[in-house]
UniProtKB/TrEMBL annotation:
GO terms for cellular component: plasma membrane. It is found in: Cell membrane. Keywords: Cell membrane, Membrane, Transmembrane, Transmembrane helix. It is a multi-pass membrane protein. Signal peptide: none annotated. InterPro entries: Multi_antbiot-R_MarC. This is UPF0056 membrane protein. The chain crosses the membrane at residues 40-59, 110-129, 136-155, 175-196. It holds the Pfam family MarC. Belongs to the UPF0056 (MarC) family.
Length: 199
C-alpha cells in the first residue's frame, strides 16, 4: 500500500509538474493585486483538484460511455505524456501549453486547466479507477498530498523564482521532463503488453 501511494504521488507530481509551472504562475499572476494572489492560487489549485478527483471517480464510466478500453487510454496517455515531456526537455515559445495572450485575473484557464490538470494528468487519473476501496483511498490520499505540494510551491512561486534563478528552474524542469519521458515509455510498453495479451 505504501509503495502504491509513493508511486502514485511521484507520477502525479511529474505529470502536474508544479516546479515547471512556477514561471507560468508568476507570469499569470503578475497583473493580479498582491493581496489577491494567494486567493487565486488556492482557487485554481482547488479547481484542478476537483477536476482530477471527478476524473478519478468517473473514469471507468466515461471510458464505457465512449467505448474506449483501458489499454487504448494507457497507450494514448503515454503518447501525451511523452509529448509533454519533450516540450519540458526542449522548451518551445509560449511554454508547455502556449500563450493565449489574455490579460487580467486568470480563472480556470490556463492555471487550473491545462497547467495543473492537463491532458496528461487527466489521462493518468483515469487509469487510477479501481474497484477496491483501499486502492481508491490510496489514490485520493496521493492526489491530496500532491495538491498540498501545488499549494506550497505556487504560494511561494515568486520567492522560488528569485532564490533559485531562471537557470536552476530551467534545469529542474528539464530533469523532470527526462524522468517523465521514462514514465511515458514505461506506460506505453505496459499498454502494448496488455494489448498483446488480449489478442
Amino acid at each position: 500500500m505504501t509503495q502504491t501511494f509513493i508511486q502514485t504521488f511521484i507520477l502525479l507530481s511529474l505529470v502536474t509538474d508544479p516546479f515547471g509551472n512556477v514561471p507560468l504562475f508568476v507570469a499569470a499572476l503578475s497583473k493580479v493585486h498582491k493581496t489577491r494572489r494567494w486567493k487565486v492560487v488556492v482557487r485554481e489549485c482547488l479547481i484542478a483538484y476537483v477536476v482530477l478527483l471527478l476524473f478519478m471517480f468517473f473514469g471507468r464510466h466515461l471510458l464505457s460511455a465512449m467505448q474506449l478500453s483501458e489499454i487504448s487510454l494507457r497507450i494514448g496517455g503515454s503518447v501525451i505524456l511523452f509529448l509533454i515531456a519533450m516540450r519540458m526537455v526542449f522548451p518551445q515559445p509560449g511554454g508547455l501549453f502556449g500563450d493565449d495572450g489574455s490579460d487580467g485575473e486568470p480563472f480556470i484557464v490556463p492555471l487550473a486547466i491545462p497547467a495543473i490538470a492537463g491532458p496528461s494528468a487527466l489521462a493518468t487519473v483515469l487509469l487510477f479507477s479501481s474497484d477496491t476501496k483501499m486502492e481508491v483511498m490510496v489514490h485520493i490520499g496521493a492526489l491530496t498530498a500532491v495538491a498540498l505540494v501545488w499549494l506550497a510551491v505556487f504560494l511561494s512561486a515568486e520567492r522560488l523564482q528569485k532564490v533559485l534563478g531562471p537557470r536552476v528552474m530551467t534545469a529542474f524542469e528539464r530533469l523532470m521532463g527526462l524522468i517523465l519521458t521514462a514514465a511515458a515509455v514505461e506506460m506505453f510498453m505496459a499498454g502494448v503488453r496488455d494489448f498483446l495479451k488480449s489478442l
